[in-house]
Specification:
Elements: E1 2-6, E2 15-19, E3 30-38, H1 41-48, E4 61-62, E5 66-74, E6 86-92, E7 98-106, H2 113-117, H3 120-133, E8 140-144, H4 149-160, E9 164-169, H5 174-179, E10 183-186, H6 191-198, E11 203-206, H7 213-220, E12 226-228, E13 240-241, H8 248-260, E14 268-273, H9 277-286, E15 292-296
Parallel strand pairs: 8-9, 8-11, 9-10, 11-12, 12-13, 14-15
Antiparallel strand pairs: 1-2, 1-4, 3-5, 3-7, 3-15, 5-6, 6-7
Helix pairs in contact: 3-4, 3-8
């Protein structure tokens, strides 16, 4: 089978499309014929070696953790899913023709494979950080860098829970944030005052790692109310860094429910082939995403 792999840490040029042995579903796992894989910032952070001190991996290594596809192997002890079903979920080395998933759910009716691949990690992250922020119905949450996949999920999940969200993004994405129910404003000089004019902030999320932790602490008045998923130095300023996933199966089940009820939709901004994985990482690293990027297989 074809798989995107890297044999050394570095820039996007280390990614190669190679022939590899097919993986197989062990106990508690399923294998899918991949139709699409989600592109996440964690993919290129791992490729760069940013997590080697905390989560070391052996090289050569595959790329990707989110995928959608058709079940073609069911491991020992797995119940409730059959060969031929369409699922989306999380596993390893998903930029490939076949991948093993450790968590999955049936794809909601009407969802394309490309769309489904964009949900697993971002919805788990969104649910986790909303919970960690401790915001409740009637309160206001600030999302810095709100137009990407996690931000898109945060805005819609929070809205469904009666939480007001203020979102910051580039000028080109203001209407997009408003379409998801957010109070929107731009980055740049004076952004803190623009946020203040939109309302009191009860908690804040740093989704882009753009060096705004001090300002978010200033806006909330309490560093414990600030959570980052992108700035490893956030704890130095008293804020929290959230990087350990909670229950992915529970998150997928909740995502499926929200999608089926029409309460969650994350658009696919751009798709790539396996051979274009490096371009996908370059674009992801550049930011300014509206929704999700996916690799089609």
């Amino acid at each position: 089978m074809k798989r995107v792999s890297f044999a050394e840490f570095g820039g996007p040029d280390v990614l190669q499309l190679v022939d590899a042995e097919e993986p197989h579903a062990g106990p508690g796992r399923i294998r899918i014929a991949v139709r699409a894989a989600g592109v996440n910032p964690v993919d290129w952070r791992i490729r760069e070696g940013q997590f080697q001190k905390v989560r070391p991996i052996e090289l050569p290594a595959g790329v990707g953790q989110d995928a959608s596809g058709v079940v073609d192997e069911v491991g020992e002890g797995v119940e409730g899913v059959e060969v031929g079903e369409h699922v989306f979920g999380e596993g390893s080395s998903t930029y490939a023709e076949f991948a093993v998933l450790s968590a999955w759910a049936r794809m909601p009716e009407g969802l394309t494979f490309a769309e489904a691949a964009g949900y697993p990690s971002v919805v788990e992250t969104a649910l986790r950080i909303i919970r960690q922020a401790g915001v409740r119905s009637g309160q206001t949450l600030l999302a810095s860098g709100a137009s990407g996949g996690v931000g898109s999920a945060v805005l819609q999940i929070a809205r469904d829970r009666g939480i007001t969200v203020i979102g910051t993004a580039g000028a080109a994405n203001q209407d997009y944030l408003r379409s998801l129910g957010a109070l929107a404003t731009t980055y740049g000089e004076g952004w803190v005052e623009r946020v203040r004019r939109l309302g009191h902030v009860d908690a804040a999320l740093d989704l882009a790692g753009s060096g705004v932790i001090r300002e978010l602490v200033e806006l909330t008045g309490d560093p414990r109310k600030v959570i980052s998923i992108a700035d490893l130095a956030a704890p130095e300023l008293g804020a929290r860094y959230s990087g350990v996933a909670g229950s992915v199966p529970e998150a997928l089940a909740e995502a499926a429910g929200l999608i089926s009820r029409g309460k969650l939709h994350i658009p696919v901004e751009k798709s790539y082939t396996l051979a274009e994985a490096a371009a996908a990482h370059i674009d992801s690293h550049a930011g300014h995403t509206r929704g999700r990027r996916v690799v089609l297989v």
